[in-house]
Specification:
With about 80 residues, the protein is α+β, with helices and mostly antiparallel strands. Helix content is about 30%, strand content about 15%. It is built from two helices and two strands, in the order E-E-H-H.
């Protein structure tokens, strides 16, 4: 896939298991264009797999935000 993402998993808490996927984009239009560009090569088989995954999903939520490196705990050397 040409566009990167971050994947995080919450293993405890009342929403567990919680999987968070973070995708960088300039705005909503840029995000939609990236999403379409990444989905295109997957074709109908990818749509079928996503439908199966969402059938198992309790809740799906989208949020917008900003990366805050000043509040992050990055590994040494980064």
């Amino acid at each position: 896939m040409p566009d990167g993402y971050r994947l995080m998993k919450l293993a405890f808490g009342h929403d567990a298991p919680l999987i968070v996927v973070s995708v960088g984009a300039r705005d909503a239009d840029d995000f939609a264009a990236q999403d379409a560009r990444c989905a295109r090569p997957l074709g109908a088989e990818g749509e079928t797999l996503f439908a199966r995954a969402f059938a198992l999903t309790r809740k799906f939520d989208r949020r917008s935000g900003w990366l805050r490196p000043d509040l992050s705990m990055l590994p040494a050397g980064k």
